[in-house]
Every structure is written in structure tokens, then in C-alpha cells.
Amino acid sequence: MSSRCGIASLNFTKKEQEILLLMRSGLNNTEIAERISISVSTIRLHNSAIDRKFGALKRADFVHC
Q1: DSSP string, 21-53
Q2: What is the pLDDT confidence band of residue 1, given thresholds at 50, 70 and 90?
């Protein structure tokens, strides 16, 4: 992951990194779930973990970071 916005120091799991990159590419939760063959509810769980690691920023804040 990029060190931009402190991302490298946030200890994302590989799956969180994958999901974050897909979010940054503009995909929504349903599209991400289909792309990596997991459920939308699992995507939401990963999103919650990503939010916590970013300090609960809005998705738009870290997608464009």
C-alpha cells in the first residue's frame, strides 16, 4: 500500500488492502463482492475495519487520499 495518508502504517490485512484498492478504483460494495467472490455483508465487515483504521473518516476521504 502507499504511504500516502499514513496508509502503510495502518496494518491492513491483505483482504482489506484488496478491498481498499477496489474502492479506490470506483467499485461499490456489490461490485467488489462479485469481483472477489465474497458476500456484500463480508465487504461491509471489512469496510468497518478499514474505517476504524482510518479513524472513521468518510469513505470519500480515504478513497481519494
Answers
A1: HHHHTT--HHHHHHHHT--HHHHHHHHHHHHHH
A2: very low
pTM to 2 decimal places: 0.71
Q: Is 46 exposed, middle or buried (0-12, 13-18, 19+ CB in 10 A)?
A: buried
Residue 35, CA distances (Å) to 8, 28, 43, 58 in order: 24, 11, 11, 23
Amino acid at 47: N
The alpha-carbon radius of gyration of the chain (Å, integer) is: 11
Question: Tens digit of pLDDT for each residue in 2-25?
Answer: 445 555 557 889 999 999 999 989
By CB atoms closer than 10 A (0-12, 13-18, 19+), residue 23 is: buried
